[in-house]
Design a protein that fits this description.
heterodimer; A: alpha/beta; Rossmann fold; 34% helix; 21% strand; B: 375 residues; 2 domains; five-stranded parallel β-sheet; two-stranded antiparallel ribbon; 8% strand; magnesium ion binding (chain A); thiamine pyrophosphate (chain A); THDP-binding (chain A); oxidoreductase activity (chain A)
């Protein structure tokens, strides 16, 4: 076992590098991923080391990035596409949902589409519009896609390699405001948990916080700050498929649950969690499952994003409310 | 004031109406006369020409069979290829087995050239599956219904060929309407920038359901290629010789590192867009009659007769063979089994998926509950 302290961005880079070393069919493609190393430097140095045929600076056309990645996969390659920002994924929506997601089923299982689509997501970086969104529910609603989100450097390193090895298409969400957070990363994957599993990020007994991506850290900070109650935090990690047993085990133990994400609450991923928890844990619940998230509006200008994004206080306010029943 | 008048006249920068009398490559006239072209030629033996004739007749017969099956309620819908046989057989027969073809949903003639069982083409239209053949076995991808999406898959596949080395090529089929789609234009950009070994084969059949070419373009489609940085060529899409020659050349160019070509096969959709369409609402009968004189099969027949390459017995034997193949396809179509309910959850993911497994098991037990009652 060997560990190294890395930023989340660097851990992604190391994970990609490892995958490219292990399998010559792995390609990296996207806008500015070559010499620049990507706008978040996730692909820094990869083109220098693996060449322009494997690290492809693409035309500025997101549908084209995903569409040609499908063609490369049909030829036996394992493309890893970078969508530069969350709000830029929509031009590729048809290629992802109608083409990539369905092709295995449409081919009666004869075609394999091992395509990973990396999307830096979420707000909190003071960006202009279309750079701070959380579009995960569009993709969890689409059969044929696997959808995951990493929350820390260790998972970034591990989960990207697992996603690339996966024979199915994977939408891989990266918490852009956590790119520069550092933590020790275990470089040996042999003991790593499956990327389909949720993990208990912090144990507690009174209430469960469910989160993924950037909100895991927010929830951990909230749990830390609460001196009265023992708060458990579960990092969902895999949004589709959902690791129901880890989630339900936790909620059955604590009896209370708050789901936290940056995406709008209405019709968001938390709605699915709340419905499933109500169905599976009905007799264990002391109070309804509450949700904390963005509002049902377009993402606001950055001077207002602190109001829009769940923070420690809004999370603890919801925790308080679960005890009011 | 009409919308056209309000929009003003087309620019006078040499723009040519997209449906003006075409300048195109032709090697066989509608009357069956062989003509020369300075750049394109094809040398074919009598047997090869007879083989092309056989293909043309059989795919037309299969198309008629599918139309009949639809009228009888055995297929949900059918997209007829009537009139486009030469464009599809000429280009399909230009391919090598290792080349990869990406069709839209009307390329039944190309499917025939790729040895796809015609019955498996019917599965999609009967609703028993979304596709019935293994694309890898035939190097013929799934039908793609979202207009133009497959052009990017072909461009990516061609990029894969480049990375593998070797001299395979990709060809992608789409229609005149698809040339307005972003994906088709992105695939032009991509393939040009990558110098990918790809042929864009546009069957301009003059109609995108009810919309004539004027709704899509101010210039002939083949001329769009120039702006993207690769050659475009217009070929008589009802001339199987010319289509074969032009497609071979474009494929050869792709193989030898000269990048993409756009071929506009100028043809005509003799039938409706699909069996749910009614062309009498938007086009004139006279137009159809004019195109009937340019029939892709009759001109080959005329050539074979004039040059004494085939006699009455030959034509009769081909008709009989087409009839036999048609009846066989009809019989096997009717025998296609409805899938089991659990097929809904099959092949969605490569490995087990807890959500789908849960839904499947729950639904299976729900269905089982009816069996309990009836027992």
């Amino acid at each position: 076992m060997s560990t190294e302290t890395l930023s989340l961005s660097r851990a992604m880079n190391e994970g990609l590098r490892k995958a490219m070393e292990n399998d010559p069919k792995v390609l990296v493609m996207g806008e500015d991923v070559g010499k620049l190393g990507g706008v978040f430097r996730v692909t820094d140095g990869l083109q220098k080391d693996f060449g322009e045929a494997r690290v492809i600076d693409t035309p500025l056309a997101e549908s084209g990035i995903v569409g040609t990645a499908i063609g490369l996969a049909l030829r036996g390659y394992r493309p890893v596409c970078e969508i530069q920002f969350d709000g830029f994924v929509f031009p590729a929506f048809n290629q992802i949902t109608s083409q990539l997601a369905k092709m295995r089923m449409r081919s009666l299982g004869t075609l394999e589409l091992p395509v990973v689509i990396r999307i830096p997501f979420g707000g909190g970086i003071g960006a202009v519009e279309h750079h701070s969104e959380s579009p995960e529910a569009y993709f969890t609603h689409t059969g044929g896609l696997r959808v995951v989100a990493c929350s820390n450097p260790s998972d970034a390193y591990t989960m990207i390699q697992q996603a690339i090895a996966c024979p199915d298409p994977v939408i891989f969400f990266e918490p852009k405001r956590r790119y520069w957070d550092k933590a020790p990363v275990e470089l040996d994957l042999s003991a790593a948990a499956s990327f389909e599993s949720a993990v208990v990020a912090r144990e507690g007994t009174d209430v469960t916080l469910l989160a993924y991506g950037p909100m895991v850290k927010t929830c951990l900070e909230a749990a830390q700050a609460d001196e009265e109650r023992s708060i458990e935090v579960v990092d969902i990690r895999s949004l589709n498929p959902l690791d129901e047993s880890t989630v339900m085990d936790s909620v059955r133990r604590t009896g209370r649950c708050v789901v936290v994400h940056e995406a709008p609450v209405f019709n968001g991923y938390g709605a699915e969690l709340a419905a499933r928890i109500t169905e599976k844990c009905f007799y264990h619940l002391e109070s309804p499952v509450l949700r904390v998230g963005g509002f049902s509006t377009p993402y606001p200008p950055s001077r207002l994003e602190d109001h829009y994004l769940p923070d420690l206080d809004r999370v603890l306010d919801a925790v308080d409310r679960t005890f009011e029943w | 004031m009409t919308i056209d008048a309000a929009r003003g006249a087309p620019p006078s920068t040499g723009a040519q109406s997209p449906s003006a009398p075409p300048e195109l490559v032709q090697l066989l006239t509608p009357e069956g006369e062989r003509v020369e072209h300075p750049e394109y030629d094809v040398e074919l033996t009598a047997d090869e020409i007879k083989s092309l004739y056989r293909d043309l007749v059989i795919v037309r017969r299969l198309d008629q069979e599918a139309l009949a099956l639809t009228r009888q309620g055995e297929l949900g819908v059918w997209a007829s290829l009537l009139g486009q046989e030469a464009a599809q057989i000429g280009s399909g027969r230009a391919l090598r087995p290792t080349d990869m073809a990406f069709p839209s949903y009307r390329e039944h003639g190309v499917a025939w050239c790729r040895d796809v069982d015609p019955v498996s083409v019917l599965g999609l239209f009967r609703g028993v599956n979304h596709s019935g053949w293994d694309p890898r076995e035939h190097n013929f991808h799934l039908y793609t219904i979202v207009i133009g999406s497959q052009s990017l898959h072909a461009a990516g596949y061609a990029m894969g060929i480049q990375r593998d080395g070797g001299d395979d090529a990709a060809i992608v089929y789409f229609g005149d309407g698809a040339t307005s789609e972003g994906d088709v234009n992105e695939s032009f950009v991509w393939s040009a920038a990558q110098n990918a070994p790809i042929v864009f084969f546009c069957q301009n059949n003059q109609w995108a359901i009810s919309e004539p070419l004027e709704r899509q373009s101010r210039i002939p489609l083949y001329r769009r290629a120039e702006g993207f940085g690769f050659p475009g060529i217009r070929v008589d899409g009802n001339d199987v010789f010319a289509v074969l020659a032009v497609t071979r050349k474009a494929l050869d160019n792709a193989r030898s590192g000269q990048g993409p070509t756009l071929i506009e096969a100028f043809t005509y959709r003799m039938g409706a867009h699909t069996t749910t369409d009614d062309p009498t609402r938007y086009r004139l009968e006279a137009e159809l009659e004019a195109w009937k004189l340019k029939d892709p099969i009759e001109r080959v027949k005329a050539y074979l007769v004039k040059n004494q390459m085939a006699d009455k017995d030959f034509f009769e034997s081909i008709d009989d063979e087409a009839k036999t193949i048609g009846s066989d396809v009809r019989r096997r179509c009717l025998e296609l089994p409805d899938p089991e309910a659990t097929a809904i959850w099959e092949n969605v993911y490569a490995t087990d998926h807890s959500l789908l497994a849960g839904e499947r098991d729950q639904f299976t037990s729900y269905l089982g509950s009816f069996e309990e009652v009836t027992r």
